[in-house]
Amino acid sequence: MKNLCFVLTVSSGINYGSISSVPLIKNNEDLKEYFSDDYIVSTNYIRDKDKVDYLVVPDPFVPFENENDLPIIKVPARLFMTKDFDKIANCIEEYFDKNPT
């Protein structure tokens, strides 16, 4: 099973960059639950960057260092804001169709 990390909050040294206006309070359990049947899911890049295989990143998003040079799956940021998990899933599936492992 593929191990995905949805990069929604990253450390920028002295602050956090996030797709949410309140990154440390944001609950992403609904996102994790939606994708957990098909993937191992993380939403904590800072903690799990050494344990995942792919990064799912909103586009556009704040710059961050991809320390492990993991493959990045870009998904339009508006889909995260509207919680359109079906369209996010389509973007992920399209990536894997074009980049078989």
Oligomer description = single chain
Largest sheet: 4 strands, parallel
Q: Overall 3D geometry?
A: globular
Order of helices and strands: EEEHEHEEHH
Q: What is the alpha-carbon Rg in Å? A: 13 Å
Percent of residues in helical segments? 25-40%
Describe it for me?
The chain is of the alpha/beta class and 101 residues long. Helix content is 30%, strand content 24%. The chain is built from four helices and six strands; from the N terminus they run βββαβαββαα. The chain has helices spanning 29-35, 45-48, 77-81, 85-98; strands at residues 3-6, 9-11, 16-18, 40-42, 54-59, 72-76. The strands form two sheets. It has a four-stranded parallel beta sheet. It starts with a strand and ends with a helix. Mean pLDDT is 85; it is low at 19-25.
Short description:
Helix content is 30%, strand content 24%. With 101 residues, the protein is of the alpha/beta class.
Q: Which key terms come to mind for this protein?
A:
101 residues, alpha/beta, 6 strands, 24% strand, globular
What's the SSE blueprint?
Layout: E1 3-6, E2 9-11, E3 16-18, H1 29-35, E4 40-42, H2 45-48, E5 54-59, E6 72-76, H3 77-81, H4 85-98
Parallel strand pairs: 1-4, 1-5, 5-6
Antiparallel strand pairs: 2-3
